[in-house]
């Protein structure tokens, strides 16, 4: 089988060329995004993440061993921050690879995990590394 397509991971209307990647917000309706001209960066990131989670499952990986990234639920908890209680949802992103070499190049982001590290840094998400060669990222969504 082949690696997941852009349409399978980001939505059927997503496109790319040499310099841009476009995700149609209508593809993110299924995960709860209400498209507006002023969607926040966090809402777009979480919506894309949840869209990718629909396809990048361990079950799909069994049927397609070319899937290198899987996303699974990590549980929920209640947290209090500044006097407000939030429901926090954790996710685990597993990146599997055969090679013992690891590169942080953004030129092939999903092949080496750099895109996930970059998103984790930008979104102040907790980054946990499991024993090599399998890397585990823990992502939390503090939604109310």
Describe the structure in your own words.
- This protein is of the alpha+beta class.
- It folds into two domains: 67 residues, no CATH class; 77 residues, no CATH class.
- Helices cover 27% and strands 26% of the residues.
- The chain has a three-stranded antiparallel β-sheet with strand order 3-4-5. It has a two-stranded antiparallel sheet with strand order 1-2.
- Strand 3 and strand 4 form a beta hairpin.
- The C terminus is likely disordered.
Secondary structure blueprint with pairings:
Elements: H1 6-10, E1 15-16, E2 21-22, H2 41-55, H3 58-63, E3 69-81, E4 84-95, H4 109-112, H5 114-122, E5 135-143
Antiparallel strand pairs: 1-2, 3-4, 4-5
How much of the polypeptide forms β-strand, as a percent range?
Answer: 25-35%
Specify Rg, calculated over alpha carbons.
16 Å
By DSSP, the count of extended strands is: 5
Largest sheet: 3 strands, antiparallel
The sequence of SSEs as H and E is HEEHHEEHHE
The helicity comes to: 25-40%
Shape: flat
The separation of the N and C termini measures: 39 Å
Please give a handful of descriptors for the protein shown.
5 helices; alpha+beta; three-stranded antiparallel β-sheet; 2 domains; 5 strands; flat; 144 residues
Give the structure's gist in a few sentences:
The chain is an alpha+beta fold and 144 residues long.
């Amino acid at each position: 089988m082949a690696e997941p397509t852009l349409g399978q991971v980001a939505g059927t209307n997503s496109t790319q060329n040499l310099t841009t990647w476009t995700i149609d917000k209508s593809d993110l309706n299924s995960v709860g995004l209400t498209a507006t001209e002023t969607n926040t960066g966090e809402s777009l990131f979480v919506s894309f993440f949840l869209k990718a989670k629909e396809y990048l499952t361990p079950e799909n990986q069994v049927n397609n061993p070319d899937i290198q990234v899987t996303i699974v639920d990590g549980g929920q908890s209640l947290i209090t921050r500044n006097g407000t209680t939030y429901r926090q949802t954790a996710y685990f992103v597993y990146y599997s690879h055969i090679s013992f070499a690891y590169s942080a190049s953004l030129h092939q982001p999903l092949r080496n995990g750099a895109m996930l590290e970059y998103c984790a840094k930008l979104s102040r998400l907790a980054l946990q590394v499991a024993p090599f060669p399998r890397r585990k990222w823990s992502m939390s969504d503090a939604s109310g």
